[in-house]
């Protein structure tokens, strides 16, 4: 029984999904426990929880990078059986190909899609311009700042036009100013060309600011503790200073805090 | 023109300063024989060695032997890079191969490869092929181990990124794993390059009728110590320039690293 925003409208349906994380050494850990969730077309949903709560594991299962062992995940009615260009991913540490230039990184997915060379270059240029990296096409990732690396990664993923965007703490490795700028730009991109976005974060304010719904996850084993509507008028430049916004952040923070404490205790020797 | 000179000038200065100790060593050699600190039977005077070297170079015998050595060393090294690199990456990629090859690599890695000189001579005789096989076998493992470690270190998120951008599993091997393996593999190749010179000269000294190692032995046996020293110097310079050239190539291939 999946919790969603209206039957039939769901693009992604996760049903009673569990996943056992098996480290090479040590005991297996139940990382995701009986999670059910439905996500609508073009919805922006945040998965929020303390570190190690299994939210990234859930995202990797959605991406098809890890095998589904118990429960099901369907996208547009079809079970997920592996990675595919319908689900683009952006990682916290960028995961750019360090031996490729910005342009070659953005062109990679287009090359794999079999586009003609000229088409690849034109489309790559459009997305490089979109994320504001004009003039850095021939730079290697090692020559870029963290923010520019993440812009490149976002351009690379957007270029293949995935229906679903999976984001794994994409701004977690950036400094505060860059992060807030990137959040605004992501919202802008999402409003101009809406995609379904699943955004993993442990930052409450970020989740409330970006997402339409926030799924709060519990400490390990990862379960969905609550799903909270966070619909605000994002065109208001002072949104984060308004009372309803602050109240919402406080409400969710209370939920997360208990879990963060539990996670801390669980880690103590 | 003058701007270019201004750039080259300091670089030249730094280069001279850096290799100053070599110059001092040559001066010491000059002085040692001039003032009879050592007998010329042990160390022939540098000018004599240079004259001998000039004679060898102009007579052409030297070049035939150099060509022969370069052919053997180059071919053996090239095969070791291709086979060794492919083996290392395949071991990282495919677990059954890893289980089969790991103990074999571990046992043969510390083996002094010069012990194979008589073995390859027994199999293939005194000619080129025995040297090529020797250098191939002797130089392969450092490349294999470098490629293996580099490929094992390929980042999971890079492989996942490639997959979600539409690459098949096999495509991630060539698009992600191979370039990830490159830096460590190229380190292994540098070790292999140094090893190839050692094995080349050693094997030519013992079992050969051509090559620089053979020439050193031949001149030494004939009592032409000036000539022998000249060829030893030539081999040392060849090794040095091969290493410099390789490092420049390495920097170019890995230019994406800062």
Task: Give the class-level CATH name of chain B.
Answer: Mainly Alpha
Beta-strand segment tally of chain A: 10
In N-to-C order, the SSE pattern of chain A is EEEHEEEHHHEHEHEEH
Q: If interface size is counted as residues with C-beta under 8 Å from the partner's C-beta, which chains form the largest one?
A: A-B, 29 and 20 residues
State the secondary-structure class of chain A.
alpha/beta
In percent terms, what proportion of residues of chain B is strand? under 5%
Task: Please state the CA-atom Rg of chain A, rounded to the nearest Å.
Answer: 19 Å
Q: CATH class of chain A, anyone?
A: Alpha Beta
The percentage helix of chain A is: 25-40%
Unreliable stretches of chain B = none
**Tally the helices of chain B: what do you get?**
11
User: Span from first to last CA of chain B?
Assistant: 30 Å
Radius of gyration of chain B: 23 Å
**Helix-strand pattern of chain B:** HHHHHHHHHHH
As a percent range, the share of helical residues of chain B equals over 70%
How many domains would you count in the coordinates of chain A? 1
Query: Assembly type of the shown chains?
Result: heterodimer
Task: Name the shape of chain B in a single word.
Answer: globular
Q: Say what the CATH topology of chain B is.
A: MetI-like fold
Describe the structure.
The complex is a heterodimer of chains A (269) and B (258). With 269 residues, chain A is of the alpha/beta class. Chain A has one domain: Rossmann fold. Chain A is built from seven helices and ten strands. In chain A, helix 2 packs across helix 3. In chain A, 43% of the residues are buried. Chain B is mainly alpha-helical and 258 residues long. Helix content of chain B is 82%, strand content 0%. Chain B has helices at 2-18, 20-34, 46-59, 61-93, 95-108, 117-124, 128-152, 156-164, 169-206, 212-221, 225-253. The longest helix of chain B has 38 residues, at 169-206. Chain B starts with a helix and ends in a 5-residue tail after the last helix. The relative contact order of chain B is 0.12. The mean pLDDT of chain B is 91. Chains A and B meet through strand 6 and helix 2 of A and helix 8 and helix 9 of B.
